[in-house]
From TrEMBL:
InterPro entries: AB_hydrolase_fold, LACT/PDAT_acylTrfase. The keyword Signal applies. This is Uncharacterized protein. Pfam families: LCAT. Residues 1-19 form the signal peptide. It comes from Tetraparma gracilis. Keywords: Signal. It comes from the Eukaryota.
Amino acid sequence: MRPPVALALLLAQLLHVAGRPNPLIVVPGLGGSVLEAKLTDAPEFRDCQTTSSDWYTIFFSISQVVERFKCWEERFALTMAPDGDSHVVQSAPGVEIRPRDFGGVDGIEYSNSGSGDWIPMPYMKVMVEKLEQDAGLVRNTSLRAATYDFRKAGDWASTVAQFEALQGLVEETYEINEQLPVHLLSHSLGGAFTTAFLNLQVSEEWKEKYVASFINLSGPLLGTPITMAALLTGPVYDYVPQILPELLVPVLRTAPSMVWMSPQDSDVFPSDLPILTTNTANYSAKDLGAFLDDLDAPLMSAVWTDGGVEKLRAASSMSPGVPHFCAYANDTETGLTYQYAVDNLADAGSGKMLEVTMGDGTVTLGSLERCLSEEGGWAGDLVEHKVYAWGGGMDAHTGIVKYDPLLDDLVAYLNRTDVWRTQA
């Protein structure tokens, strides 16, 4: 029998005092999970290795990309699954790819963990250390991560398998931490992923038992226009020669997650807002299917036609029905509409940003603010809401995970027991 709420709250508080805080699982963003590859009779390509009995870091490996880019591209891009398969996409023939250290934190601390690169690329290293030192969490026990193959997120069968893995990790973490409910902390795409998981994968009873709260950092809950632009010419960064992002376009055009993160037809991205224009066509959020067809990217069109990604997109814009902490930066100019002086999308070269709005440099404010929306049902679940001034820097979206004011607020939130669900 479940104890009364007052008793459960008291027990949770006592366990906090005794050094047993509620556990936390991190769900990283697009590109935030280190991915490892293993080769078995992969087709030959120039100087590419065709077999490898050991797992090696394929994303993100500076040495792989810089020294053997075409080889890396052939191994990392997804391909169409055969007719009749429940998956729309699969890894390249002879290539198996998995997330690094599922359940541990080695796959999120550095973006290039295990690569042997000469330059470390920290992602959540600062956050992990802060949560260990100031929130009393223990890595790989009460502080864990649900790394996942972010390329495939959006392919229905692949995503359901990822949801099942996350559900199992939550249940395991609950059991090894004195049956304390688990906080789910997400970043970027991880916010949409976690919201869809809570809406589609598990029951209300399951959430009441296993989930303390949902901590959503920089979540693009309605997608973001920069995704459509990135599918044409790659993401644009200050001080980075555009030839580098452009090299990634063929890979991006095979990732269902790029469809998931494209803007959703909504009051934020209405049908009369032309997010992307060419000499011959205008594409609003409601025209995403036509945009993918005109892009001449069959895999992307197949993902859209399959319909699973639309169910995920709808689920990721609605309240998951658990207490949550929502945080983001909102003072950076962020692309809203784009123009490309071409007749054919597939021939797009460089374009230009026509209109900007506020946001975090990657996600527009309207999409970030979905967690406040009464329309999506979020407002009734809101426990904490924090907005940070970044000073206009383009790194606001990714930099928030190591931002001291956010980390201090996060620790304060985790050390409270009156704002999120407690249950023994």
